[in-house]
Design goal:
The chain is α/β, with parallel strands linked by helices. The protein contains ten helices and 14 strands. The strands form three sheets. Strands 1-6-2-7-14-8 form a six-stranded mixed β-sheet. Helix 1 crosses helix 9 and helix 1 packs antiparallel against helix 10. The radius of gyration is 18 Å and the shape is globular.
Length: 258
């Protein structure tokens, strides 16, 4: 996804408010993008907000870990993890076979479907190959959505963008016929003033081979103990109600999925 500025590394570290740190407290750096609302977004005042961010804070608190966020452009986020700039990626990254060749993953912490949005006056009626034949479709590059669009909409022109914000601007200004992304990301945009141009024209049934098994936390290869700690924390916040509290802050359905 499952989503990414093309500028050089946007460096930012913030301590997470998870209590008073002690000398023997686990210390982790969490990589996220900061440009994929409502999952993660960097506000004008420098604060990070979103579902990913709140989940990360809850997991760190459950693990009794002292955590910091580091923002990173999406197209460089896996190399930055491998280089040791942070210890885990919590940024709506889909668990896919292709990515599992480079990193390990925890279990999923949410799973929502993709969708297609188009201008309100568009003649596009759905999300099928026939519906989008001959159309120009915008996607964020290096995502499961771009992979799906390239593999599926073979009769369409696919334009890839470094960030979701850039494809949103182009479809609003009439330079694209449609866009593909996570349905929650699209709905968040459509409910805003900037998204008044457009509407959802159809949802996409996820292809497990492309879209993966939901969004998980990426860690460096072989760091099994850290993965197990995150998995235990995910299970714990699901059981103690903290996950639902965060979920209900952003969504009117269970984002964890089936």
């Amino acid at each position: 996804m499952f989503m990414r500025t093309s500028a050089a590394l946007l460096a930012l570290s913030m301590a997470l408010p998870v209590g008073v740190a002690s000398a023997d407290m686990m210390k982790l750096k969490i990589g996220t993008e900061g440009a994929y609302p409502p999952f993660n977004n960097l506000e004008a005042d420098g604060s990070l907000v979103g579902f990913d961010v709140d989940i990360a804070r809850a997991l760190c608190e459950e693990m009794k870990a002292e955590c910091e966020f580091v923002t990173q452009d999406w197209d460089g986020i896996i190399p930055a993890l491998q280089a040791g700039k942070f210890d885990a990626i919590i940024a709506s990254m889909s668990i896919t076979e292709e990515r599992m060749k480079k990193v390990d993953f925890t279990n999923k912490y949410y799973n929502t479907p993709p969708a297609v949005a188009a201008p309100k006056d568009s003649d596009i009626k759905g999300s099928s190959v026939a519906d989008l034949a001959g159309k120009t479709i915008g996607v964020q590059g290096s995502t499961t959505h771009s992979n799906y669009a390239e593999a599926t909409y073979v009769d369409s022109e696919i334009k890839q963008y470094p960030t979701a914000d850039e494809y949103k601007l182009d479809v609003a200004n009439g330079r694209l016929d449609a866009v593909v992304d996570d349905i929650i990301v699209l709905k968040e945009w459509l409910d805003s003033e900037d998204g008044a141009c457009c509407k959802i024209v159809g949802t996409i049934t996820p292809d497990p081979e492309i879209h993966g098994l939901g969004a998980g936390i990426a860690i460096r290869k072989g760091e099994t103990e850290l993965a197990e700690k995150f998995n235990a924390a995910i299970d714990a916040i699901r059981a103690n109600g903290k996950y639902k509290e965060i979920n209900d802050k952003y969504f009117d359905f269970d984002a964890y999925g089936g």
